[in-house]
Design brief:
It is found in: Secreted, Cell wall; Secreted, Extracellular space, Apoplast. The active site is at 103 (nucleophile), 107 (proton donor). Belongs to the glycosyl hydrolase 16 family. This protein has helices at 2-16, 29-32, 251-264, and strands spanning 23-26, 33-37, 42-45, 50-55, 61-65, 67-69, 72-79, 88-95, 103-109, 118-124, 133-135, 146-152, 156-161, 164-170, 186-193, 213-224, 227-229, 265-268. Strands 1, 3, 4, 7, 12, 13, 14 and 16 form an eight-stranded antiparallel sheet that branches. It has an eight-stranded antiparallel sheet with strand order 2-5-15-8-9-10-11-18. By secondary structure, it is mainly beta.
């Protein structure tokens, strides 16, 4: 009983100093993000409910969250660049800082008109990535807003599109495989030019006659076991498992995952035997 009382007191203290413990908030862009680059090419509209990033021949643009997160479920509705978007990349990801950073990536690689977008996903731990999986979509991501979600918890990282899982990266630290556990991350997004690699390996270049390009964002929502603003000292808030629901996929979601990976996955690093030709180079987690 004394242990429970101590945990309850800690929770009340954290709430009092401004932490969000299992708090869900529909973010106003003015309140939740800072525009970090682009010299006026990223702008907030509709009383903070809509953010638009643009890219022209001079520069792209981007923004970053005011808060840092240690585990959480992050949703963002995004409408991607219309028309001939070849050579453009809209990035939406979580990342820590430093030479041994952790990162969880969504990147949306544009294509020529009528060709499908590519969703590029990756997970970095300790500054090392090389865990790419790529997908096409089963809808037109430029016609309307769709929800892209990162659900990051101690068990696994789940990438979701409109609530449907497309990828799961499991925590296999006990097997010596890196996993993002100790570094709080901020949310970043940007629209930029990458025609040296983005579209068909760089074979299709950006057509600046279509500029300016734009990507739009709505309905940011965060649900976190613990977050902080930059002027507060970090405290981990997830000691009590009841404070957060550590989620894995149910049977229905496993069926959705299998369908998406069977029908729409176009690259999986775990089956790239030209890139990893020997047992010494083959990623450990792929054997699990």
């Amino acid at each position: 009983m004394a242990f429970l009382a101590t945990k309850q007191s800690l929770l009340l203290t954290l709430l009092a100093i401004g932490f969000l413990v299992v708090a869900a908030s529909a973010g106003n862009f003015y309140e939740s993000f800072d525009i970090t680059w682009g010299n006026g090419r990223a702008n907030i509209y509709e009383n903070g409910q809509l953010l638009v990033c643009t890219l022209d021949k001079t520069s792209g643009s981007g923004f970053v969250s005011k808060k840092e997160y240690l585990y959480g479920k992050i949703d963002m509705k995004i409408k991607l660049v219309k028309g001939n978007s070849a050579g453009t990349v809209a990035a939406y990801y979580l990342s820590s800082k430093g030479e041994t950073w952790d990162e969880i990536d969504f990147e949306f690689l544009g294509n020529v008109s009528g060709q499908p977008y590519t969703i590029h996903t990756n997970v970095f731990t300790g500054g090392k990535g090389n865990r790419e999986m790529q997908f096409h979509l089963w809808f037109d991501p430029t016609a309307d807003f769709h929800t892209y979600t990162v659900h990051w918890n101690p068990l696994n990282i789940i990438f979701l599109v409109d609530g449907m899982p497309i990828r799961v990266f499991k925590n296999n630290e006990k097997s010596g495989i890196g996993y993002p556990t100790g570094q709080p991350m901020k949310i970043y997004s940007s629209l930029w030019e990458a025609d040296d690699w983005a579209t068909q390996g760089g074979r299709v270049k950006i057509d600046w006659n279509n500029a300016p390009f734009s990507a739009s964002y709505r309905n940011f929502n965060d649900q976190s076991s613990c977050s902080r603003t930059s002027n507060l000292t970090w405290v981990s808030c997830d000691a009590n498992e009841n404070l957060w629901k550590w989620t894995t996929l149910n049977d229905h979601q496993k069926g959705q995952l299998k369908w998406i990976q069977d029908e729409f996955m176009i690259y999986n690093y775990c089956t790239d035997y030209k890139r990893f030709p020997t047992p010494q180079t083959y990623p450990k987690e792929c054997n699990l």
